[in-house]
Known about the structure:
Elements: H1 3-17, H2 22-33, H3 43-55, E1 60-64, H4 70-76, E2 84-89, H5 92-104, E3 111-115, H6 118-125, E4 135-138, H7 145-154, E5 161-165, H8 181-195, E6 199-208, E7 211-220
Parallel strand pairs: 1-2, 1-4, 2-3, 4-5
Antiparallel strand pairs: 5-7, 6-7
Amino acid sequence: MTQEKWTAVDRYITDILVPPDPALDAALQASDAAGLPPHNVSPNQGKLLMLLALIHKAHNILEIGTLGGYSTIWLARALPTNGRLITLESDPKHAEVARHNITHAGLTNIVEVRVGKALDTLAKLATENCHPFDLIFIDADKPSNPEYFSWALKLSCKGSLIIADNVVRDGAVIEPDSVDPKVQGIRRFNEMLGSEPRVSATAIQTVGSKGYDGFAIALVTSDQ
Length: 224
């Protein structure tokens, strides 16, 4: 199997199951025009996130890592009219693009973009009356994933779902001596998942237009 074939299969799946959407397509175009890195989830992965949020009947979602707001839009569309999504972005330029895309998608009444270093923003969230979150999506700088997971536990409750992207890193996650801080961050995160008694977790490998990677999914099974 090759990257070319993975991408072709993703295109086939998307053509059948993820029809064109003006707001989502515009979000990708605006992000590309603004020079944002192409790190957003693929369309079929975005729809998976939305379906997981719908299945979980999420009302209060936290996203760590906004980029251009593509996954934000997918997740927000799963929320009821009285739902809320807070998304955290460290780069002001990315946040500006995301806000534009979220406005274009008609979701400003549900989505709040907060700008700043996520570890600082998470600490502030913990002091506010806006949690527990019933779904948390982690997709930011990978070296900080262990800290993000720790905060996710503090901001969740029994029954919350925690999802993390990019947990396989082209298979490099099995290399204990890797000098890549992203790989080491993910390794520590995966080890935390395995040793944390308050969650039941698994991870799946994925291939497609975004290459070879994976998602981790953890269900919080006991209160803090």
